[in-house]
Write a structure and sequence with these properties.
429 residues; alpha/beta; FAD/NAD(P)-binding domain; D-Amino Acid Oxidase, Chain A, domain 2; 2 domains; nine-stranded mixed beta sheet; 17 strands
Length: 429
Amino acid sequence: MSLYPDSYYAASLDKSKTSSSTLNEEHSCDLCVIGGGFTGLSTAIESAKKGLNVILLEQNIIGWGASGRNGGQIWNDVAWGIDVIEKKYGESLAMKMWNISQSAVDLIDERIAEFEINCDKKNGGIHAATSAKKMKEYENDSIYKRNKYGYEQLEILDRKEVSVEIGSKLYYGGILDRGAGHLHPLKYCLGLMEAAQKLGVQCFENSCVVKVNQHSSGIEVLTKQGKIKSKKIAVCCNAYLDGLELGIENKIMPCETYIVCTEPLDEAIQNTILPNNYCVSDTNFDLNYYRLSSSKRMIFGGAVGYSLKNVEGLKKRTKRQLDKVYPQLVNHKIEYIWGGLIAITVNRVPDIGMLNDNIYYAHGFSGHGVAFTGIAGKIISEGIINGKTSELEAFEKIKHKNFPGGRLFRMPLLVTISAMQRMMDVFNV
């Protein structure tokens, strides 16, 4: 039986997780969802609501991957930036993508309320600028989003104001986004699992898919011990696509990111660090992202790797970045440290689509997965029920390139590019 990594999230669950059986023998359904994270659970929930017979397969346990161990931060927009989409694809598509991203944020609150999920949700987040140049870009972006998209949740913070809100003198200013937020991702994920099961979704854990066969009569999904005959499938594996060989693997790059969690902060320090309980994301290429837990621990992520060979180095780099932002926490004990895979696309826009009328997929959330995964599941489900929707067509228009170099050379190439970008961060370029 798979176990969760030794993270703060797993240690702080307020109730035991319900176990699901392993798939064996042969089953049939309308929709087979592959992947038991946010995307897969969202797809299953929306499809079950619409009356489909849904089976969900997870190769480990529900929430084992990024959905159960990420930074927990909720932001709208895409990592590429809505302004870039507007310049490349026009105002109409940009507005469509903006509205989808905002719906993704709203959907989290809707589901928390609908399914009564206790996941420590808090509102508000700060984009922190690591240079005067970055701060000017933030100010321009804030004005642009207010005027172009009518987004009134943004407030510009000067250097003094951001220092008070964050409790660090590192930044040149920032943007407070009152529409952002953060939550306990594993609690939220398990809340979605319970909701899916109550809607009649059959969840099978420790059921790794080894092959997908396409027939004129439907799809055959094979695991080591069982088989599912399904009319349609939704591939919601994100960074864990290896072995399925569906032709979409080279659209994403799995990346390893690390998070550390301190012991509870001293009471005196609690009053000076994130006093309004906002989450923070800064402008480094390997951005620092951090927040306080409900128990007043600092949860801090930042180091990103494109190879799993230097795990200890990534862990140490994360701690160094924490100490740089918060020198006052140097002597606070790190009680948890964990890593995991996320998936990025070349242009940092999620890749959501369909291979044919029977196979749908979503992956490559590029650091914006807490919100975008939920709406991705809803988009997939609506496509399965109604055929190609305007939302699916919008994502089809965003062209996704394969990572250059194929499987052999794409990793070293991206490592080189990333090292150059980190050097630019050092010199505030």
